[in-house]
Amino acid sequence: MSENNTAPNHDCIDRNDTVFKHLTPEQKERINAEKNCNTYKKGAEIYHEGSRTNGMYCINAGVVKIYKTGIDGREQIIYFARPGDIIGYRSILSGDLACSSAKALQESVLCFVPGDLLIDLIRNNGDFALDVLQQSCKELGEANSYITDIAQKTVRERLAEVLIKLRENFGLNENNELQVSLTREELANIVGTATESVIRLLSEFKQDHLIDLKGRKIRILDSKKLEKISNAFG
Description:
Elements: H1 25-34, E1 36-40, E2 45-47, E3 55-61, E4 64-69, E5 75-81, E6 86-87, H2 89-94, E7 101-104, E8 108-114, H3 115-124, H4 126-152, H5 155-170, H6 184-191, H7 195-207, E9 211-214, E10 217-220, H8 223-230
Antiparallel strand pairs: 1-8, 2-7, 3-6, 3-8, 4-5, 4-7, 9-10
Helix pairs in contact: 3-4, 5-6, 5-8, 6-7
């Protein structure tokens, strides 16, 4: 596992938009004392499907892709974890092996919180337990939506929806470019199709003046038409 154990001890639990927001000062102090923060280089694996995580991770900086691996070895990206998100916790709650893999999409800083501490916090802080439950339900809802999309939407519609969601999740820079860099293969692994299909559809979107392309950079030119194509708001 590629990681740097000299990473600074970031205070991820002090953010107001995380599941840690309802912890008491004493509970936050305990996490700070027991957590272990590390820097993961781009492409570094954090944990693998079928492994035992023994704890959860909080994203301090960077982006982590959560994915499953098919029979043919192909990745199916489920979602991206960003600063403030927690990953790996469901295996602790269920007692099962990890049902997905996590890999750094860019250089990222993560804090590891031991599983026994997570369980103890859930038992002793109802608001924290509710936040963790809501996080799990949110992820389940997104997974259900993805299954519906795969069954009912065309690849063209799914790609348009993915571009809209990437815009919502990561934002645009001053040039209206998505502030996340993905390979064509990674885009295909989100959409759930062949890389060649994504390359062809991106070219069509460019010809229709919906987007512009410059290497991995994707510039959004017409969000409203992309939304219409995606049927996400119909």
